[in-house]
Amino acid sequence: MAKNVKNAMGKVYIGIGGWVFEPWRGTFYPEKLSQKRELEYAASQLTSIEVNGTYYGAQKPESFARWHDETPDDFVFALKGPRYATNRRVLADAGDSVERFFSGGVMGLKDKLGPINWQFMATKKFDPADFEAFLKLLPKKVDGRAVRHAVEVRHDSFKVAEFVAMARAYGVAIVMAGDSEHPQIADVTAPFVYARIMGTQEKHKLGYPTKTLDAWAQRAKALAAGKAPEGLETVATSKADGGVRDVYLYVISGDKVRNPAAAKALIERTG
């Protein structure tokens, strides 16, 4: 099975949210597979996983080290930034939360540390001065290792050119929402793309119709090659810049039982 896709230098990583979910036992995971081996198995079928637990609280440093050791060399984890940093009235005051997050063992993932997704509540509006103050708190390097940041905003007030320009100035990706009620801002603002598609349905064996899977696969490959994909909503004029970039695409929400099948189908289409 293809583990990633190269369009020049860009790679496409595709996965799901987490790996512990009882209904996946017998549907995604083989019958009688030990729960302790679920991450190992998921990592053999997918190319990335987005970890939601880091949003709700600190994980043990030894957990990150174990995740590193239980997964293939070319596997990556995206981590949710802690809610204590994003769910606050004044984002400029989030410095301590950001620092605690990065000193809490996440760097134990080493080369398997993918982007950090800083997710904001749907009620959080765009305050240019305060949001820029937050972006200034995000370290470009930790312990000598480059760190990639993405922001997941869910209020329509962010659908303005000023926000897109701000994210681009700081090299931060805007999380691209797909097949959901959340506003879609597909403007490319960083050397990588972070997408979350949320429309899987139980009635489709692979979560999505074949046509939809084909469309998302083509979009991922186009973005990795620096091309402007079709069918995505941008704030600024969408132009192909020719810049190759890594793409991280996660099948999230929707009919969660179907998400691994959808992710595997996308991996096959981008291989």
Please provide a brief summary of the model.
The protein is α/β, with parallel strands linked by helices and 271 residues long.
Protein model, in words:
The chain has 271 residues and is of the alpha/beta class. The chain has one domain (12-269): Alpha-Beta Barrel (TIM Barrel), CATH 3.20.20.410. The chain has helices at 38-45, 53-56, 61-69, 83-86, 95-102, 128-137, 161-169, 210-224, 259-269, and strands spanning 12-17, 48-51, 76-80, 113-119, 141-142, 145-146, 149-152, 173-174, 176-178, 192-197, 246-251. The strands form two sheets. It has a nine-stranded parallel beta sheet.
Number of helices: 9
Overall number of structural domains: 1
Measure the end-to-end span.
8 Å
Helix-strand sequence: EHEHHEHHEHEEEHEEEHEH
User: CATH superfamily, please?
Assistant: Protein of unknown function UPF0759
Q: Main sheet: which strands, in order across?
A: 8-7-4-3-2-1-11-10-9
CATH arch. level architecture: Alpha-Beta Barrel
What is the β-strand count?
11
Helix/sheet category:
alpha/beta
User: Might you state the CATH topology name?
Assistant: TIM Barrel
Please tell me what the overall shape is.
globular
The profile of the biggest β sheet is: 9 strands, parallel
Low-confidence stretches: 1-7
Q: Kindly estimate the percentage of residues that lie in beta strands according to DSSP.
A: 15-25%
Bin the helical content.
25-40%
CATH class: Alpha Beta
Backbone CA Rg? 18 Å
Mean pLDDT: 95
